[in-house]
Design a protein that fits this description.
The complex is a heterodimer. By secondary structure, chain A is mainly alpha-helical. Chain A has helices at 4-19, 22-49, 65-72, 84-93, 123-144, 149-156, 177-210, 213-218, 223-263, 269-283, 291-318, 325-341, 343-348, 353-360, 365-375, 380-408, 418-426, and strands at residues 56-60, 77-80, 98-102, 114-117, 164-166, 172-174. In chain A, a hairpin with a 5-residue loop joins β5 and β6. The two termini of chain A are 18 Å apart. Chain B has two domains: 4-221, Rossmann fold, CATH 3.40.50; 226-285, Alpha-Beta Plaits, CATH 3.30.70. The chains are: A mainly alpha, B alpha/beta.
């Protein structure tokens, strides 16, 4: 029998005092900013660092490849007659940044081109040079064989395979990497949220205990009501924050693509590639996110939060200071980390038995189920059963936690051990 | 009209192997100031926590206003715990309204009462401040208002004077007496026994979880008779240690409370004192609560 008015009062206080707090306002604003930065920054870094193109000398024994390379990109390549030994010395002295040696047998399909550099050249540049040499040598060899244009076209053509899912109702959905990334993002958001809000609950319990207000409250309401009110208040807060983020996130996705394309003006050949990837990023906003994914995300976030907050509350009530809580937190942290470790295998093969079983364990479901739901349509029985299991787990945990809480909030000055927590659970 | 506000019937509470409260029974009558006395660890706070339904007794029954203690009786009690505490980041007004509403007041009633009490304590100007910004003395006043704002019929104070300066202690005493005169029942616990003598109508003495003495303070003291001496003197106090069949309490450089045990003669002690020091005052009195407590404990032990 819960006293409803009191519970509502507690929920309201827990919700409103946090909603107005600086921490909430700052984290609500900051998180999307960080997300934007994470999305835009890599693209920006590529464009920025593309400013300076290194120039490499080409020592060409074929008399053809070097010319073609320079013709295609005179900024990057420069022909030279200086022998490789001298180029080597120049490189050691730091006068040049690198050089290419093209042996004459290369056009006969033998030998290999050599690229020397001072060790400061990154993967983008080496792969670029590799593909330039490959393309040039191929073209020259095709020229020499008088290859018809049709054959060249055949060689240049890329074959694409589209990846589609047919649901039981016969609906087709285009698959893309997008859904996997979406699953990952959702998994990580829930992971962060369970830690973040779990810590909020834990600290709030600890604060009430150290400020000793808890005895005044406990003389007016039952500890279970206080605990439930706290958990519900913080859950509402989490939903509020997620709603704010979802709205701003949707807006972000709508503007991210155009925004990034704006930064990539394909002025040099260097940035053509980047523009392509920008188009890819923009294409991320295209696939629709079905309502089931949203519903699943919110449900699993909520249930995950409830399960873990019950655990964190128990820890908070058992200690006086945050530093004492670490030992007791270890099992909880392990439970949250396990699904993160299985994120890869599960999203890679979401229909495997391992994936199904792991994603249905109530402690792992909050992270793994949304990941699976993003990638494939999971059977309803799995969805329903998992939700049911999670609700049961929450009910059992909050009951146990309330028993620890009831005793813990009145215990001061000593760090409780797991054994003591068990004892508190059994107490009448 | 219910005669007894609080009733403990054979109440026991055990923590592991430790019996914090051991088969305790007593009653608190309406309109009285009831003192729960005993040294630290006697079971006072545990008893209060059971009375306020924070803890459940292992056996026995506790009745408040004739109803078994539980969620229904909580709002009829006002409780000032020994360890004071409020939400530091919450404003005084909001916090008091919240606490009063948790005890069943409507928002309007809560505001009216809180306004009255804050004004009474000259604290109304702080209503918009966060509790953490106030001085310790101010916080004590706010906590006191939080205890009485919902107008409970029975007030429970655990060590109400601890941490109060002499001026605020006097104010608190006045308010406690005033509350009693307005028909409230006051239940308070302390280990500072001398503070209680001026306030309590009835007492219950606790030691190691057991109730060792209970009743009307005046009657208890009268039953001991005038078997104590208040001696004021000037000079070397060493002679006190040589007295036989006495127990000396509250000994200081110029005062001693001497309890006469079997066979001790007050006149012999006066003569002995005159031999050694200059006697400034010599009075036969009823024993202090502390003396009664010590006496009861030693009798308990010898039984």
């Amino acid at each position: 029998m819960i006293q409803k008015e009191k519970l509502l009062l507690i929920i309201k206080r827990e919700y409103l005092t946090r909603l107005k707090s600086k921490v909430f306002i700052i984290s609500t604003i900051l998180a999307p900013v960080v997300m934007i930065l994470l999305l835009v920054l890599p693209a920006l870094v590529v464009t920025m660092s593309g400013d300076r193109v290194r120039q490499f000398y080409v020592f060409d024994e074929t008399g053809a490849v070097g010319q073609e390379l320079v013709a295609a990109d005179s900024v990057r390549y420069r022909l030279t007659d200086t022998v490789p030994d001298s180029l080597r010395q120049a490189l050691i002295r730091g006068e040049i940044e690198g050089f290419l040696v093209i042996p004459h047998e290369l056009l006969d399909g033998e030998g290999r081109a050599l690229f020397f550099h001072g060790g400061t050249v990154g993967m983008t540049v080496t792969s670029r040079i590799r593909s330039d040499v490959q393309r040039t040598v191929r073209d020259i060899r095709l020229d020499r064989l008088d290859t018809p244009a049709e054959v060249r076209q055949v060689l240049a053509d890329r074959v694409q395979t589209e990846h589609l899912t047919i649901s039981a109702e016969g609906e087709e959905t285009a698959h893309s990497e997008f859904y996997m990334v979406l699953g990952f993002i959702m998994g990580f958001i829930i992971y962060g949220a369970m830690f973040g809000y779990g810590a909020v609950i834990m600290r709030s319990v600890m604060e009430e205990k150290t400020s000793r207000i808890v005895e005044v409250i406990a003389s007016a309401v039952r500890p279970f009501e206080l605990l439930m009110g706290k958990v519900a208040g913080v859950a509402l807060l989490g939903l509020t924050q997620f709603t704010i983020w979802a709205v701003s996130g949707a807006m972000l996705l709508a503007v991210a693509g155009p925004l990034i394309s704006f930064f990539y003006t394909p002025a040099t050949p260097e940035t053509v590639n980047a523009a392509e990837s920008a188009a890819e990023v923009a294409a991320f906003s295209i696939p629709p996110i079905g309502p089931m994914i949203w519903i699943g995300f919110v449900l699993f976030f909520l249930l995950g939060f409830l399960i873990y907050s019950a655990l964190f509350a128990a820890v908070g009530s058992a200690v006086d200071q945050e530093s004492d809580s670490q030992q007791l937190q270890i099992p909880i942290i392990m439970l949250i980390i396990v699904p993160i470790m299985f994120l890869m295998p599960v999203s890679d093969d979401p229909a495997s038995t391992l994936s199904i079983v792991l994603s249905m364990v109530p402690f792992f479901a909050p992270i793994l189920m949304p990941v699976r739901m993003a990638v494939l349509q999971i059977p309803f029985w799995q969805f329903g059963l998992t939700i049911l299991l999670m609700i049961l787990t929450f009910v059992v945990l909050i009951w146990l936690s309330a028993r620890i809480y009831r005793t813990g909030i009145l215990m001061y000055g000593k760090k409780a051990t797991f054994r003591e927590l068990l004892k508190w659970m059994r107490e009448k | 009209m219910i005669d007894s506000i609080v009733e403990f019937q054979g109440v026991t509470k055990q923590f592991g192997d430790y019996r914090a409260v051991d088969n305790v029974s007593f009653e608190v009558k309406v309109g009285r100031i009831f003192g729960l006395l005993g040294p630290n660890g006697a079971g006072k706070t545990t008893s209060i926590r059971m009375l306020t339904s924070i803890l459940k007794p292992d056996s026995g029954a506790i009745k408040v206003f004739g109803i078994t203690a539980g969620p229904m009786t909580q709002s009829r009690l006002g409780y000032l715990p020994e360890e004071r505490g409020l939400y530091k980041k919450m404003k005084v007004g909001e916090q008091l309204v919240y606490l009063a509403r948790l005890r069943g007041l409507t928002r309007d009633d809560a505001r009216k009462r809180i306004r009255y009490w804050l004004e009474r304590f000259g604290a109304y100007d702080w209503i918009g401040q966060e509790v953490g910004e106030l001085s310790k003395g101010m916080q004590q006043k706010i906590q006191f208002v939080a205890t009485i704002a919902h107008d409970p019929g029975c007030l429970i104070f655990d060590e109400p004077f601890s941490g109060l300066d002499p001026i605020n202690s006097e104010v608190l005493k006045e308010v406690i007496l005033e509350l009693r005169d307005s028909g409230k029942t006051i239940f308070f616990a302390t280990h500072r026994m001398e503070q209680v003598e001026q306030l309590c109508d009835d007492i219950a003495l606790f030691n190691k979880g057991k109730l060792i003495l209970n009743g009307d303070l005046g009657q208890i003291r009268a039953s001991y008779g005038q078997n104590s001496i208040h001696l004021r003197f000037a000079g070397d106090s060493r002679f006190l240690s040589g007295l036989k069949n006495v127990r000396i309490n509250n000994r200081s450089t110029n005062f001693a409370e001497i309890r006469l045990l079997d066979g001790a003669d007050d006149q012999a002690i006066l003569q002995e004192a005159q031999k050694n020091v200059r006697v400034l005052g010599f009075e036969l009195v009823q024993p202090s609560i502390q003396e009664i407590f010590i006496d009861s404990v030693s009798r308990e032990v010898s039984q």
